[in-house]
Fold each of these.
Amino acid sequence: MLETIDLNDKTYAELLEEAIAQIPLYSGEWTNFNVSDPGVTILQNLTSFNYLQQTAINTVTDAARQKLLALLGFRPRQVRPAEVLALPLGAEPIRLTPCRKFSSNGVIFEAVTEEICHPWGLAAVYLENGGAYTDVTSLLDRSVNLSSVPVFGAPPQAGAAFVCVLAARPDLSRPLLLYAGTPETGRNPFAAGDAPFALIEWELYTADGWQPLAAVDHTHGFLVGGAVALGPAESEPAELTQTPIQGHALRCRLVSHEYDLTPRLRSLTVNLARLTQRDTRVALRALPGGQGVTLRLDPLCPCVTVYGRADDSAPYRLYQNRTAARGRYYEAESLPDGETRLVFAGEASERPGPGPADLLLICAAEESERGRALGPIYGYVDQEITIDTDGYIIPAELALLLETSSGGEKAYEIVRPGEVSPDGFLFELLPGNKICVRRPEISGTCRAYIAACAVTLGAEGNVREGNAFTAFAPEGEKADAFLNPGAGRGGLSPETTADLRGRFAACLQTPWAAVTAADYEEIVRGAPGLCIHKVKALPVPRDNLMRIAVKPRSEEMFPRLPDSYIRRLSALLSARRMLAAAFVLVQPEYLPINVQAGVQVKSRFAGAREDIEQALRQALDFVSTDAEFGAPVRFNRIFTVISRLPCVAAIVDLALTPGRRGAAVSDGLDIIPEGHCLCYPGRITLEIITRTER
């Protein structure tokens, strides 16, 4: 359906030849078939039209493919910029303003909020349990590669907590951002709405003791690395004096849990700012008008164009930066603190209104200002205009300024992708940084300009952790800097039609309904938020039953399937199984394999017994390796492992026996365990015979 189907592969010449050959069937009077004959000329035109129509029918465009895929629920993913949490460096506060630019190895990031970042962090970190404090401040030293710390104990204990002593008084009038780094465990990504493994409470120390603090936790209880947003707080912080290092403090307490793995931290960073991977080429600022406005302009975007309107029902008009007796103009005055005052000193009727968007400022660098003009809007449907810029344009950051003539004076309006303007104008952003005019509902002449535009690198913005971000600064000024303790996240590149078709094809091969044993295994293996090491589905046809053995990843040597996994997997499989089919989750059974061997070793090798035992334990370890459930123990393989050791001269005797009856059968000298069993080394009995070498 999505491929091109050639309904007629004949050329224009072949079609014309067929048409002329059929003339005698319809008219005996038409005998002149030369190109000079008017009838043949008409026939040529009709054949050309037929050929063009046939070509159009044969061509399956990207737009047609996308519409067909949309019927199946597949739409292209839009571009999305990455985000990083950044730690301010240096000793001086850093002022952030929207669109302030920072560079990390040539990749541009921007601030998203107006704030002042003070360079303070953690003074100390303590694990608290039963009133005792254990210092783990080593988490603060990113230059030392230390093993991770179990923040709630190993195994985790309800009531355990860790305390973060801050190096300064926190401003909790806005959320305080924290980043927790965790070791990699092979856990599947969590899905939205997944039930947490633990109930955790964050608290702020106040004059009244520890008080609850609102938290948005993206770490799922420190099982994966991510951000935690704390606050805002209703109470004022106070200094904690019970810890060796005193100061304002936060506490994270484990209330209850069903952890499958012990939560561990390898790094902890607080007082972070958000930076977005984008490069704003043209910025649009909407402000209240009136007699004047005070604002801070970006010195890197000196080209400022001002538009105003009397109220939200009037069009925008252009304001000039000049002094005149009449007309729309403004005067710019530089203030000592780096801000600028725009004064609209003309007649009151010509000043911008006081509404929140009655004054528009379009700010751009000189090179971007030269490319703002996109040309005329001609008034036909699907007119395409390419915006000449590198990177991917972010749809939410794009706006056009339409210039029309109204009453002999130019009028302006702002339109965004997918939004219908008051005049009925509508455009979309297409892949390749193209805009397509879907509804050109305009009268008279109209020209389009870029009013706002920002680009991103998409997935390339997901930078690794530990990068320096240096601010763009005018020559001679100090460049502020940040460091990202965690990798960039969330960046997506736009999806082409070919990518969309590939995702559709992959979805067709993904088992959404559990039918075969392989379907059950793949669904369990990809269960959101779980750490699955091994899975084996064992069909029982006579009972229409599927027995599913699952081994989770665990710090235990012989882990069992915890109740939390059984509940989550049962809910997942129940929603996908066939109505008449049944399934049961089976605990893994661990089967010891006993070895009795007589080995002749070379006399010059010391420690031969230890080498042979180690080789046997590695060869018989089907639990921690990638061996599947029910994997057989092959006698020849064990024999080969021993005989290839440098210390071994000969194998005199070798016997393998299962350590538990009923869990395995013998096939000659091999051992075949049950399908839900995993073998491991049991009792090893070695008789070492030393051969004297000459």
Amino acid sequence: MRLTTKGLLLIAIPAIFELALLSGLVKAQSDAAQAERWAIHSEDVLRQTTAILDPVLGESVALRGAVLVNDAHFVTPVAVWMDVDRRIDQLAELVADNPAQVERVVAVRQEVQAYRQWSDRVQDMLHSGRRRDVLERFRDLAQSDVLDRFRAQVVAFQSEERRLDTVRSSAAEAARERQQWLVVAAVLGSLLFVALSVGLFTRGVRGRLVLLTDNAGRLASNEPLAPIAPGRDEIARLDLTLHDTSRRLLEAERIQARFQADLARRTGELARINETLRQQTQENEMFIYSVSHDLRAPLVNLQGFSKELIRACDELRAAVRESSLAAETRQRIERVVDEDIGEALHYLQTAVLRASHIIDALLRLSRVGRVEYRQQKVEVRDIVPRVIDAMQGSIRARSAHVSVDELPAVWGDPTALEQVFANLIGNAVNYLDPSREGRIEIGTTPAPPGVHSLRIFYVRDNGLGIPAVALPRLFNAFQRLHGNVAAGEGIGLALVRRVVERHGGRVWAESKEGVGTTFYLSLPEAEKHSVAQSADAVVVSQAPQVAQSRGHREAHYLRALD
């Protein structure tokens, strides 16, 4: 016989016995609980009956006292009868499962109504001064007392309820005794069947289980397993499974060794690639710096010689005026000097200044990747108002309204993040639509499901907006969409992207031309980083020292914008 079949039989026989005892125990417990509830129910019914009887008797006493003293102003409050009627309704609900008691409740209600009518007539006669008629009614009451009928109905109801309570109490006591006997039988029977099952199951199985346990220990210790135990039952199958598992573990160890070797090889390749990228990045930065440095000398020469040409033109213009040349010739020379040469020199100086700005932008863009950040907890709710305060001049000039929601703390470099928000807010201010009132909103939005370590901020405006075709290249360097609206080189958003990505986040935008633009950026949440990280961070500032006055601070921010 298979172990499962034997085990099922050994379990099924005592289980059936225990289920029978358990069902009887549950039934007895249910009967006892039901009897207890009925006993409590009877107490509630009797209490409710008393609550009906007492107000009516009290009213009767009060009415008789008023008759004795001839109180013509005595009036039974309507609230008394309303309360009695409400309690009768509650009593009817309590005994709704007993038709006989429901009929008695109906009779009680009728007697209460009859007594109330009698009481109302007596009070009417008192109010009209018919004391003799009142006394006559009380003499008639001696033969057929309506109050006694009401009391008799209540007493009959209570007697029946007490009888039911006695029956239910007896049933509860019997259920409790039956429950106790079943508990004793269940305990003794369970002990007996457990002892019998243990004896039958361990006989003839213990030795094979010992061998199986030894093989399991050998498998855990990575030692060779003993031969498979003979048999065709579950123990033999389990032992066979242990041997198969041992073989698979050995194979897995060989595969793991190959994987580790491959991982070490790939790690080395990745390290070499990273080193190559680092060198390429360093070479690119050195190239940008060298090119920028080499370009400045000819730009300075161009700027200087253009100024020399301007002075030469001024001297030539003065010499022409003082010369004896004909008026027509003198005017032609002055027109050439003022218009052709002057315009050419103006374009030359503008191009030199533009090239100088582009070189500065390249240097700023290259420095973003080299600067080491001072990582710490940054209160965004402090730096955003500071940025807005520094830009009040530009904000007032455009009649814009800026609103700031609650902003949580993040983890990063405070100076770098201040520059990020300065770029985004300044960008929103510069590209507001002058044809309507400007609105700028700074706040946060919930992170996507599954992302718990990042805070998502947004800067929203109702400005000119960005065409859909321009959104993919929005964060590329030297991209300008509204060049005639604000001055700049087009690297502000590129700087924002590099700073945010170095903080472990990302930046993106949603826009509709003519409606407005919303810039989103995700930054690491401050609570996810330990205080020790800020203590070990290298204290290096990314940007120049921020000026303390509002005018200096705004100028500092505007230099970083497009």
Amino acid sequence: MNVDPTELAALERYQAELEVQNHELREVNAELQQANLALRAARDRYQALHDLAPVPLVTIDATGVLRDVNRAACELLRAPREHLIERRLLVFVPEARRPALNELISSLFASPAAQACETELEFDEGVPAVEILLDGAAIEDEGRAVAVLALVDVTTKKVNERRSHEALRLESLGTLAGGIAHTFNNLLTVVLGGTDHVLDELGRSSKLAEPLLDVHRAARQAGELAHQMLAYSGHGSEPAHNLQLARMIENLEPMLRTSAPGVPLELHLDSSVPPILADELQLRQVVINLVVNAAEAMRDRAGSISITVREIELTPTDLERTPELRELVTRRNVVLEVRDEGTGMTAATAARAFDPYFSTRRLGRGLGLSVVRGIVRGHRGVVAIETQLDHGTTFRIYLPAALPAEIAPAPSLPPSVKPLLVGRVLVVDDDPQVVRIVERVIRRLGLTVVSARGGAEAIELVQREGSALDLVLMDLSMPEVSGLAAGTAIRALYPALPIVLITGFGEIPPEAGSVFTSMLAKPFDATALGAAVRRFLQKA
């Protein structure tokens, strides 16, 4: 058969083109196979990363139905994967917070932008709820629109925020209470000193003496309230000394049993615990207050109150439950525990337990547990509550053990100071009314008095005529130059000169023990002031 050469050439060209196209198709097919393998590997990696991610991840459709969950989400939602798929995310959210979640889901599928909201997951009775941050975005998966959500557990963060807010609130209240008490004590010192002066002038037999004595008693009671306010603010009124806590409670036992009539009292006191640096009178007040509260909670209920003193080694669980304890981890610590089997408290009540004037008692009044917290804070300690409604309450007070260098000796008269027949006294206070009252009392004792209205003026006066002075009465809290700074400067000039600290604020720095010879707390009357002065300046 004859073949047209032209047709043959065309056929050969066509066959060559087919071979080229087949080669190209084979190459494209190989590339597609490689791409498919890479895509499958990427999807497997994504699935592995999704499943192993520490953050709970869920995939939902536009109706809020769960289409996929990772392992962390199964743990958070407390159910296996097969029990979660096809369930709605809403079933885990409290009724009151579902509208916000529905709004989030609608927003996710209406906009490509990421969306977030906070909500709460609730479970069966007895399982605590979890506060979470929902953060996610809508994507397309195999042709359908879905949203991937991260469920971030923010429970601990929220608790810490609330604790921080509570601490700041209480610190603000404490600062306010301390400032008011300081000013109040100055005013009461003037009232007490003035009534004493008038009573001395009139004589106790005067018909005007009785109302003045009523004023004096009322001022004394107001002074007690001011000291409670100082305790709440965390400022002590006496220097702390070495104290064996177990021995103190052992000596206090008869009073504690009287404070809890009809309720068995169990003492578990480890006498080998290290000493603490404390004001014994204030800690007595703490223990009695807690026992009285426990007895009130035990009214008409069986059970006992137990008091435990032991040394404690703080654990990670303790630090997680009470973050404030982190400041005590570097020291040995003593814990005082008062446990009752009474009515217990709800979480809401426990959150307000340390508020001033808050009480669940029918006749509750006073600063109450706020004073306990203030005293403990003033001792560099921490107080924590563990309570459950109808299952009793435990108060734990953590106190740092005293270091040898911190144990302050009782203030004593410098050995070089001898009783004098006459005396010259320097009064230093920034409140002119207090200065006038103190000057009047000292003059009535037959002594000479000079005064300074601040720390800087006091230092200048001592530099000029310090050798003629026999005693200094120094306020602690003064603007510009504090009593501690002025006392330190005077002590450097005249080491043997007695300096008596007079304070209405109560905060006594640790270094004050080496500066001040003694202390007199405001408000004080003429009798207390006279006794403090006579201790150093005795007449023949």
